[in-house]
Amino acid sequence: MKKIVVFKFEVFDESIKQIATEVAREFPGVTSVVDVEGEGQLVVKGEFSTFELTKELMKIDESVETVKIGPDEEPEQEVNHHRKDEGKRPNNIEEGSTPSDDDAGRSNGTGPQAYGWWDQAKAISAGAAE
After folding, report:
1. Domain architecture of the chain: domains with CATH
2. How far is the CA of 3 from the CAs of 8, 11, 44, 52, 98, in angstroms?
3. What are the backbone dihedrals phi and psi of residue 9, each rounded to the nearest 5 degrees, phi first?
4. For residue 40, what are the CA distances in angstroms to 4, 7, 10, 36, 115?
5. What is the model's pLDDT at position 79?
């Protein structure tokens, strides 16, 4: 599950910020690293081990602490589901057209070609046994 973790540093000067950002970006599963200007915080997003990343960041600065851990809830884009011609039939459907009974592309695997590969495998193995 994607999550957001906010790390807070006591002293967050340029050198620590640069090293911490680089370590977080290279950490497996991290998708985004953002520095919160003026607050000494680093916001990290992705699917990663919070414990392991905290251990790595503590090698840089022992004062690092986890301030917030939460799910990465990206705002869903609003989709307009309204149709202008609601209630009308599409023009490309023919009257009385129905799917045929011998459809080979059935999704439940009961079509006539569903086990064709099995018959082929038996024929190959019978030929190899001879």
Report:
1. 3-71 (3.30.70.100)
2. 17, 25, 8, 15, 47
3. -110, 140
4. 16, 8, 7, 7, 62
5. 47
Cα–Cα nearest to 46, from 33, 30, 57, 25: 30
- CB 6: neighbour CB atoms within 10 A? 17
Give per-residue pLDDT as tens, 103-130: 555 555 555 555 566 677 777 777 766 6
Spell out the residues 6+ positions from residue 52 whose beta carbon is closer than 8 angstroms to its own: 27
**Angstrom distances, CA of residue 75 to CA of 29, 46, 70, 72:** 21, 16, 14, 9
pTM for this predicted structure: 0.53
